[in-house]
Design goal:
heterodimer; A: mainly alpha; B: 303 residues; 14 strands; 35% helix
Chain lengths: 265, 303
Amino acid sequence: MSAATPTAPVTIHTQRPGVPFTRLVLVELRKMFNTRSGFWLIASSLIISVIAAIIVILVVPDESLTFGLFGAAFGTPLALFLPIIAALAVTSEWSQRSGLVTFTLAPHRGAVIGAKAVASIIVAIVAILFAFAVGALGNVVGAAVNGIDPVWNLEPLDLFYLFLGNVLGLLIGFMFGVLLRNSAAAVVAYLVYSFVLPAILSILAELQDWFRDLQPWVDFGFAQTPLFEGGLSGEQWAQLAVSGSIWFVIPMIVGVWSVLRAEVK
Amino acid sequence: MITVEHLTKTYGAFRAVDDVSFSCKPGTVTGFLGPNGAGKSTSMRIMAGLTIPDSGSATIGGVNYRDIPNPGTQVGVLLDASAQHAGRTGREILTLSALTMGLPKSRVDEMLDLVSLSPSESKRRVKNYSLGMRQRLGIANALLGDPKILILDEPANGLDPAGIHWMRSLLRAYANQGGTVLLSSHLLHEIEIIADEIIVIGNGKIVAQGTKAELLEGAGAYVQAADNAALAAALAQAGFTAGAKGDGLSVDAEPAQIGQVAAAAGLALVELRGADSAGLEDMFLQLTATTQREGVVTTGGVA
């Protein structure tokens, strides 16, 4: 039956402009807010940082009220939420199966995954700036309420490290997202990775001498602590790089590679 | 123009798509017909670049799907109407697609209007949609970029009779304007009223393809005579096999041949007709018999 078919005009244009990366980033940003769950996940991380600032003002003795303390108070909820937000940005395409449309409209999956990473980082930047603002406000208000001068004991470099630490945490969540592509599994894996694994490794370090020297090199969480405490030595940077390769870079590469190959169904 | 050549995809020991080749021409609606699990959806996912085939190729206008720039504006795809984030509104889902393709927001309203989703329905979250509403949303999403080629997997599934009629007119008009449409279904009657060309797939293999008339060629005829036994004897003498069917006979011959036999034997006929959709149904069940989950018996059957 195909014998007598007249030659059909080619209907596909290959020279048209593709979907630009910036548009993908905007779409991915929108996706993070346009579901109730996504919106409230982000909103609650900010709300909790405000509550944390208020609690600090109410319960902490006057002489201890410093910007550094506020930093720790608002930094903790963010450090917990941002990685989950990033993981869900990836996994929802599979768990909710919306990837069938997403990857049909933008078949270059690497670009979509990249756009998700950029969108997550943009959300992190805004959230961290918001938290800094809340912390600063809390510091000023706390000092005024207690009739003392506000103590600004965080250097710009400290803030930078705090920021870097949060972005790194977010990327770890993202890594579990691409590696597991399942919302529940990614969140559980991230929580185990962040809270259970460090405990096991520190117990191991206490019990085994040989591991104590090795720990900074293989325990990524341990190697990250200086980020939140401001300042890394040369050796600490090296430890961060080595442990990061094991626990972050290699799994991320495997995850992204599998996302590019995985069947979307 | 969709061209599929020697497409094969296996999952472990299971061969979901087995050496499938066909093409869909502009200006026609091609129906992809097969029972559940026959390989229709896998083939369509491969066409849209979501699944990598083991061998063979699927190209659209001679190009791999992944190489089509901004593909939503050139190929409309609906693979599973239920595969949407349940927490988004229908309007939001179309808005995301419009943003990705770089289309104005007004296009979203046009499409909602086209598929008859009211403004209030469009603001509801998809988890509260019926299957029919999801199908309408999915069709709106596929048509959003005004593509010239459509790939729709089970688009009529869940639509009410009026909805199926609406979709048939829509796809017909679309093909008449030079569009290429490939749609799948496991229901014969849906396909036969919409499609110009029918591709029957079973167990991952194409078992028949052609127009409805071509598929019915050689499917035999139905005849009822005043004396069925005498006619059966006359037909047997002329070398045609006849079996009982309903109140008459199912004969492996063209109606004209049967008429001649009856005239020569001087037998009066009550009814004589070529195989119709019931014949197509029989044929469909026969062709896919090996892949059916139920051991359907097709002989004798209900007329």
